[in-house]
Amino acid sequence: MKNHALNKWMIQRISAVILLPLLLFFLYSLINLVNQDYTGALDFFDNYLPIIIFTLFLIFAGLHFKLGLNEIIEDYVQDERFKSILNRVVTLYSAILPIIGIISLITIIL
Amino acid sequence: MEKNSGPLSPHIQIYKWQFSSLLSITHRLTGVINTAGFFLIVLWILFLAIGPEYYNFYQKFLRSFIGKFILVGFTWSFIYHLLNGVRHLAWDFGYGYEIKTANFSGIIVLSLSIITTFFIWII
Asked: Which among B6, B38, B78 has CB closest to A27?
């Protein structure tokens, strides 16, 4: 149990470090893309680098906020049954969104 | 109600606010906000994959007043969480625990997050 919590703590920090450059790149592209039209946005993804970085961002952000939300739930929710329902919702949310994102990215480059 | 003797985090309704704790709760708050922002990001990629009608509709929304407000808000939230996250990582490695240092780094993070957001969207 203790090791389990320590692992989560470690993964949370490691994913944070990995997300630092990914988020910077992501914010940079978002700023560029907001004034682009549809074809401009497609052009942006016509390259492996943004695809790889976006994919990594989706995976690690999902992992990072899953652990973060679990921690918040652990701190503020007392009722065990409600806690476990909430944690399951979080797991689902943090898995489905990156999957949808990655499938979309694959569709874009195909 | 079942009895629960587990430890609890500070109840924010009766908590005495301090600058340090305000920044700390803001870190969590922005974390939750970023999770919601993540949904909009995935939606944006999804609409780009589906086709121009959906994508243009989304772009139009993001360029509206509410859309811009949301974008600026999420940008600040992401930047704050990123900068303050670096602060947390420094603490994890044992640096910056002095009250003076922690307050100073807090002021830096807060101002830098606002300045960066301003530079990104206003200029």
From this structure: B78
Q: pTM of the full predicted structure? A: 0.88
Range of B107's domain?
19-121
Contacting residues of A for B74, CB less than 8 Å apart: none
How many domains does one find in chain B? 1
ipTM of the complex: 0.90
Helices (DSSP H) in chain A: which residue ranges? 2-33, 38-44, 48-76, 80-109
Q: How do the pLDDT tens digits run along chain B, 123 residues long?
A: 455 666 767 666 676 778 888 898 999 999 999 999 999 999 999 999 999 999 999 999 988 999 999 999 999 999 999 999 999 999 988 888 888 889 899 999 999 999 999 988 876
Q: Which residues of B touch A8 (CB under 8 A)?
A: none
Q: Report how far residue A48's alpha carbon sits from residue A19's, in angstroms, rounded to the nearest whole number.
A: 19
Interchain pair B85, A78: CB under 8 A: no
CATH topology of domain A2-109: 3 helical TM bundles of succinate and fumarate reductases (1.20.1300)
Task: Report if residue B13 sits inside a domain.
Answer: no
- Is B83 within the bounds of a domain? yes
Neighbours of A27 (CB within 10 A): 17
Q: How far apart are CA A15 and CA A26, in angstroms?
A: 15
Residue A20 to residue B82, Cβ atoms within 8 A? yes
Which CATH number is B72's domain given? 1.20.1300.10
Chain A / chain B CB contacts < 8 angstroms = 83
